[in-house]
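Our preliminary data section would be incomplete without showing what the modeling component actually yields. Below, a chain of 169 amino acids is followed by its predicted structure, encoded as tokens that our downstream tools consume directly.
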Amino acid sequence: NVVLLIGSSTSGDIGIIKTDTSGNEIWTRYHGGTETEWGRSIVGTIDGGYAIIGHTESFGSGSRDIYLLKLDSDGYEEWHQTYGDIGVDYGGDLLELPNGNFVICGYTQQQGTGDYLGWLIKTDNSGSILWDRTFETGGHNVFRSLVQTSDGGYAIIGESHIPSTGPAR
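Predicted structure:
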């Protein structure tokens, strides 16, 4: 079976479509609140369900917060968590570890400067934060995707927008 993630539907919710191997629709589900949600990445989970990372304007404490949504095998919500503060926070990608914990990458707006910091978050299997780290290089740092490395660490890819300090050499 194939599951497709729709970034944001016309209703402002995250849409998920599950198809069979020939592309025939099995079910479609929408998840979100009264404002807009965006889905960025989806993974199948070890319990046969799905986990989605994105960001939300409906839940959390800021104008946009990272949004982790856990679904059962039929696409119904089991739980969700948000991460962020009063600034703008975006979810980019996630992976599930063999013990059911999650690792999330994205970015958070630094208070005072408005710059974005790359953000790496590790949660338990219910989305509660175990640890988190931010990364900066003096500009905007946007984490888009991650993988677990053979030594148990993480490789993260994204963009770094560093202000120019003069002509290139």
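The chain has a mean pLDDT of 89. Residues 19 and 26 are 5 Å apart (CA to CA). Preliminary results of this kind motivate Aim 1 of the renewal.
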